[in-house]
Amino acid sequence: VKESLDSQEWWDRFETDWLCLDTEIMPWSAKAQALLQSQYAPVGASGKASLEKVCEALEMAGQRDGGSEELLARYKDRKSMIEDYISAYQRYCWTVDGIDDLRIAPFHLLATEKGVHSDKPHDWHMTVLSDICQDDDRILTPTPHKTVDLMDPEEEEKAIQWWKDITGEGKEGMVVKPMDWLVRGKRGLVQPAIKCRGREYLRIIYGPEYTLPDHLERLRPRGLSVKRSLALREFALGLEALHRFVDREPLYRVHECVFGVLALESEPVDPRL
Fold first, then answer.
1. Are strands 115-116 and 103-112 parallel, antiparallel or unpaired?
2. Whole-model pTM?
3. What is the share, in percent, of the chain residues with pLDDT greater than 90?
4. What residues does 20 pair with on adjacent strands?
C-alpha cells in the first residue's frame, strides 16, 4: 500500500505523513476461520449428507410402493437449497498463506493530517482511491461503483440490473449511499449507507431454506429501528473521533468516542439484520 501511495505522490498531494482508510479486506474467511469451522461448514455438510439419504430412501419407497413423488420433490428442493448455501459461503473462501493472498478494496479516505474528508462527496473518494489501485494489482483492488440519478427512471433501472447481474454472479451485493457524507432529512440525519445483499448471499445470514414462503413470512416483520439508531450513533461517534484525532486533542478524548462505539456494538440486536 505504501509503495502505491509513494508512486502517486500522495504524501505531497495531501501534505501528510499518515492517512486513515476505510477498506474491505478479503477473503473474510481469513478473519473467520473459527466461524466457518463451527457454523457454516457443519450446517452444509450435515444438511447435504442427511438430505441425500432422505432422497435415496424416498426414491426407493417410490419404486416399491409409489405415492412418494410429492414428498420426494419437497426434499429435493431442500437438498438444492443446501447446495446453494454451500456454494454461497465457499465463494468467499480461498486459501490464505500470507499477505499476497489477501485483497484490499478501499472505499473511503477518512482522514489525513490536514483534516477529515467527510466534506467530500462519495464519488471523490472512489476516484481518488482508484488511483492507488492502479499501481498495485497484487493486493489492492478498486471498489466497483456507480453514480445514479434517482430522478431518472432509466438510470434507476440500470442500477437495479447491475445489482441483479453482480449478485447473479455470486457477489455479495451493493451498498447504497447518498452522494454526500452528511445528509439531513425531516427526521434528522439520514442513514449514511444501506447494504443491499443478493438472494444467494442471504442464505449465509438467514439459513439455507430462508427462501421458503413460511420462512420469508417470519423474516418480514423484523424491526429495523434499533439497528438504524445504533448505526447512526456509531457513525456520529466515529466522525467525532476522527475530528478529535486530527485536531490533536488528548487521546482520552478520542478514546471516549471509540469506547462509545464499542459499547454500542455490544448492544443486543436481532442477528437477522
1. antiparallel
2. 0.82
3. 55
4. 111
Q: End-to-end distance of the chain based on CA atoms, in angstroms?
A: 33
Cell of 101: 493472498
Q: Which whole number is the average pLDDT over 244-269?
A: 94
- Residues of the chain with pLDDT > 70, as a percent, come to 95
Q: How far apart are CA 139 and CA 128, in angstroms?
A: 17
Question: What pLDDT digit, counting tens, does each position of 123-161 carry?
Answer: 999 999 988 888 777 788 888 899 999 999 999 999 999
Highest mean pLDDT among 8-12, 111-115, 127-131, 189-193: 111-115
Q: Per residue, what are the HEC states of the chain?
A: CHHHHHHCCHHHHCCCCCEEEEEEEECHHHCCHHHHHHHHHHHHHHHHHHHHHHHHHHHHHHHHCCCCHHHHHHHHHHHHHHHHHHHHHHCCCCCCCCHHHCEEEEEEEEEECCEEHHHCCHHHHHHHHHHHHHCCCCCECCCCCCCCCCCCHHHHHHHHHHHHHHHHCCCCEEEECCCCCCCEECCEECCCCEEEECCCCHHHHHCCCCCCHHHHHHHCCCCCHHHHHHHHHHHHHHHHHHHHHHCCCCHHHHHHHHHHHHHHHCCCCCCCC
Q: Which residues pair with 189 in a beta bridge?
A: 184
Q: How many residues does the chain have?
A: 273
Q: What is the pLDDT of residue 38?
A: 77
